[in-house]
Fold this sequence. Notes:
Helix content is about 70%, strand content about 0%. The chain is mainly alpha-helical. The longest helix has about 35 residues.
Amino acid sequence: MPIIDILIAVAIVISVVVGLVRGFVKEAISITALLVAIWAALQFGPGVGDMSENWIGAEEMQTWFGRILVFLIVLALGGLLSWSIAKLVRLSILSGMDRMLGAAFGALRGVLLVALAILAGQFAGFDNDDWWLNSRTIPYFEVVVDWIKVMAPQGYELLIPDAPAESLPIELSLPDLNYHKRWA
């Protein structure tokens, strides 16, 4: 088995275990807090940064200071909320269900992270290397990469090589994995 396939399997297993240990509630609140923190930093960061004009001279630095400060505060509050709600769920009869859903969430997250890594590998031109072509798992994840390319917001097709011009619906199918022909 190629080493890349082992690395992909390990990445997904780690994500599943993290999801299992943390549980769905904690995972969901953490991701929501991250998204809210990014939004709040972009929305309110410049205003907060203006308050630092007495000790930060450059306007651009004030803006980034405000964004980072808002991001960290919202993320910390989200972490506190996540911890407290997860604690309540762990004390309830829903603990087992929370952990199972967390494992499922971890599996989906692992697949998405591997697909994003494969997309980055396509950007870097690794998709013509022998280790890439010999992988048994990468073709399956390329289906997810194709879906990501289709779902990317309009305008991002300039950043994604070989992005399909048409939008949904697109027919996605599993790749042909005739190994005896592929490596002959």
